[in-house]
Amino acid sequence: MPHLNPVTPSKDDDVYGDGDDLRYSKVPTAKNLMTGADQTWLYIHYLKGKKVGMVINQTSVIGKKNTFSVDSLVSLGVDIKKIFGPEHGFRGNAADGGKVEDTIDPKTGIPALSLYGSRKHKPRPDDLKGLDVLIFDMQDVGARFYTYITTMHYVMEACAENNIELMILDRPNPNGYLVDGGVLDTAFRSSVGMHPIPISHGMTLGEYAQMINGEGWLKGGIKCKIKVIKVANYIHAMRYRLPVNPSPNLSTYQSVILYPSICLFEGTTLSLGRGTQFPFQVAGGPALKGQYQFAFTPQPIAGVSDNPPLKGQTCYGIDLRKYDLEKLFKSGKLNLSWIITLYKQSPDKSKFFNAYFTKLTGSEELRKQIEAGQTEEQIRISWEPKLSQFKLMRKKYLLYK
């Protein structure tokens, strides 16, 4: 068994793996990357003899064959007692916002409990009874409004309250290069924005969990005992293509990288292409007819978008399927020009935004700024000094370059 190289950022957090494993590559590249889950030798012996729960979904895979992690660990003799699934369900085949029920995993016979529904992201004390350790292993995409960090917050809180250790099998953030956006005003806290961070935080879930602990964001300032298994050969600037789609509507690399910028349209009356074969790569609506030639018509897709916005209506707007992503990588910034432009071109601006926009942006400021005709640069200036303060705070919790 290779030597473990632990780093302990705080008395509460243990970190295993050096994150830049020179046995594989002197220069970190996506080709040589190994997720925390892949490095079973770093944690398998620790789990033996313990009663284990897992918070996982379809992205929780191990190795080049993308073996489902629960199947792999069971085959290695780990005693998995319960599985917890977030939004989209344990197998990741539930539509956005779709109801996910408790069930029994047909392959392993392990109870699979839904965290998306009555539990509201948080395991109950009875759910955790008898467990020694809970594993959190899911693929995040680096945006504040992506609900897996909300799930992690509540899982950490439940573990802290029930004296259970949380092991995080860390995975790369495909938008790790990007730290940008207005910092959330906690008066507008919701399930799509819990913490005072910008829209794109540029951290892995292992790093983010340390921030939740370190900044005292859990209820009553309690701390969760966490053990992070680091990613090997990863840096934040890496171009990383996910081996498995993180959710039904983020189905391409293009959509994952566009997501932090384009998801703002979810808070408008326009469609983001849910109910098409290219969600989160387009934006448009019926009212933009005559201004754009590109058109699409959302239709129900079972298990992906059962009732998409603007269902059956022809929408006209922007097509970003071939947008050069290097422009985003090189700028290191969110693209606000898309939403500013389509707002200006909307014939009925009073109906452009809906209440969800405030939840997504974490304040009322961005909506007011766009309505007032402010430029992208003027908006960016207003994000300071809070954005720079976050970047400074973030440095305390980074595990990777």
Blueprint (SSEs and pairs):
Layout: E1 7-10, E2 13-16, H1 44-47, E3 51-56, E4 61-62, E5 67-68, H2 69-75, E6 79-85, E7 103-104, E8 111-114, H3 125-128, E9 133-137, H4 148-161, E10 165-169, H5 205-214, E11 226-229, H6 253-262, E12 282-285, E13 295-296, E14 315-319, H7 326-331, H8 337-345, H9 356-361, H10 365-371, H11 376-382, H12 386-394
Helix pairs in contact: 4-5
Walk me through what this model shows.
With 401 residues, the protein is of the alpha/beta class. The chain has two domains: 7-244, Uncharacterised protein PF07075, DUF1343 (Rossmann fold, 3-Layer(aba) Sandwich), CATH 3.40.50; 253-363, no CATH class. The chain has twelve helices and 14 strands. The protein has helices spanning 44-47, 69-75, 125-128, 148-161, 205-214, 253-262, 326-331, 337-345, 356-361, 365-371, 376-382, 386-394; strands at 7-10, 13-16, 51-56, 61-62, 67-68, 79-85, 103-104, 111-114, 133-137, 165-169, 226-229, 282-285, 295-296, 315-319. It has a nine-stranded mixed β-sheet with strand order 1-2-11-10-9-3-6-8-7, sandwiched between helices. The protein has a three-stranded antiparallel β-sheet with strand order 12-14-13, with no helix packed on it. β4 (61-62) and β5 (67-68) form a beta hairpin. α4 packs across α5 (205-214). The protein is globular, with a radius of gyration of 21 Å. The two termini are 26 Å apart. Mean pLDDT is 91; it is low at 1-11, 21-27 and 93-97.
